[in-house]
Amino acid sequence: MFDHKLFYFLAGLTLGLSLAFGPAVVRRVVGMLEGPDRVVVYRSVDGHDLRLRVFAAKGEVPSAGAPAVLLFHGGAWQYGSPEAFYPQCRVFAARGIHCISAEYRIESRHGTDPRAAVDDARAAFDYLLTNARTLGVDPARIAAGGGSSGGHLAAMIGLSEGIRPAALVLYNPMLDLSPGKPDHHLVAEFWQAVSPLQRVDSKLPPSLILLGTEDREVPVASAQAFCDAAVAAGGRCELALYEGARHGFFNLRENDRTYFDATNERVAAFLVTLGWLRD
Q1: What pLDDT does residue 3 have?
Q2: DSSP, res 117
Q3: Residue 209 forms part of a structural domain
Q4: Model confidence over 208-220: pLDDT tens digits?
Q5: Relative to the CA of 252, which of 31, 201, 220, 242 has its CA 20 to 30 Å away?
Q6: H or E stretch including 226?
Q7: SS3 track for 58-89
C-alpha cells in the first residue's frame, strides 16, 4: 500500500536539502529512492553474504518471465560496488528487462584474487537460473554483462562449463590477460585459467562489446581479436567503437550523458535483434 506520510516526509526532506545544500544532494537522494526493488543473498562464503540488487522489469511481465541482464561492476577485481550499474539498471528495467547488479568478492574488501570473483560470478548466474520463476525471469533469456573486470567476469561465465548465458553485453572488458597485456600482472601466476580470449569456443553466446578507441586498459586490438575468434568459431560478436572515448566512458557523468545514452541505445538495439525488446 502506498504510504502517503512517508512520501510527503521524503518530499519535504528533498526540498529542504535542495534549499540547504543544492541540487547535487537532491540527485543523491533521488538516486537512493530509485534503488533496487529487491536485494537477495545469492551466496554465503567465508563469512560473507554476497547480494544481488534486482531492478524489476516495469510493465506486464510475460507468464514465461521477462528477459534479464546480470551486470558486474569494474574495479580490477580489487575495488568497486554494485551501485556502479544502478543507472543502467534503471534504464533497462524501464524498457521491460530485469536488471540485476551483482556484488562479488574483491581484494580490498575480502582479500581475494580474481579467481574468487570468477567463482562468485558463476554462482550469481546459477542463482538466477535456479530462482528464475520466483524473480519473474525467463531462464532462457538471461544475458551476462559488466564493465572492465566485470566484463571479464561475464565473459568467463559465457565460456564456462554448464548452462551459459543467452547473450553477453561487455563494456570495455578485460579479455586478453596474456603476458604483455594490460593487467596481466594481476593474474600472472594463473592467467591461462582466467583469460577469456584463449578460451573462446563455438558455444560462446552472441556478444556485444562496447569500447572507446582511446582505452589504455583494453586495446581495441584485444577486443577485435576476441570477436575474430568468436566468428571463426561460428559465433556472433559485434564490436561497437566510440571514437576518442576512454576507459569507463559508458558510466553516467553528472554533466554529460552522451556515452551513457549512446551505449544504452546500442545495447537495446542488440537486444532487439535477439527478440528481447521491440524496436
Answers
A1: 47
A2: H
A3: yes
A4: 999 999 999 999 9
A5: 220
A6: helix 220-232
A7: CCCCCCCCEEEEEEECCCCCCCCCHHHHHHHH
Cell 536485494: give the residue: 39
Please report the pLDDT score of residue 27 as a whole number: 47
**Residue type for 113, please?**
D
Examine residue 93 and state whether it is found in any structural domain, yes or no. yes
Taking the C-alpha atoms of residue 137 and residue 214, their distance in angstroms, rounded to an integer, is: 37
Number of domains in the chain: 2
Residue 230: which CATH number? Answer: 3.40.50.1820
Q: Supply the DSSP string of 200-216, one letter for each residue.
A: --TTPPPEEEEEETT-S
Q: Verify that 243 and 267 share a domain, yes or no.
A: yes
Q: How far is CA 111 from CA 43, 46, 104, 174, in A?
A: 17, 11, 12, 21
- Same domain? 16 vs 84: no
Residues 15 and 148 in one domain: no
Q: Is residue 279 part of a domain?
A: no
